[in-house]
Amino acid sequence: MATKVTTVDEYIEGLPPAARERIVKLRALINQTAPQFSEAIKWGSPAFMHPNGVIMLVISAHKTHSNTTFTPSTAKHFTEKLTDFETGKGSLKLPYTADIPDALIREMIEYRIHEFENDGVKWM
To answer: Looking at the whole model, is its pTM more than 0.85?
Structure first.
């Protein structure tokens, strides 16, 4: 029986090299952009929460890509900027072979904070 991951550090430790490198970079980018966020494991993946406990975004590692998942409303706001990416319900698929779009991720984090703090948009 596998041990349940309870921290982001444990999550990262269990990843293969390409996935580990990507998640470490995304984590650093998120923490630089929103140092007020806390971290937790939600649904088996790293989640970043507003100081009042509302989830702002979740990241996850997969075989060939990582996902950065925001609310569907955040993703919809950035529709025109996401045309070069594979997306899902609030998620942005980032292949390990491509660079992280740092500026876009920062902008999405800032928008997510704004939509929560000003419009009351909680998690899905």
So the answer is: yes
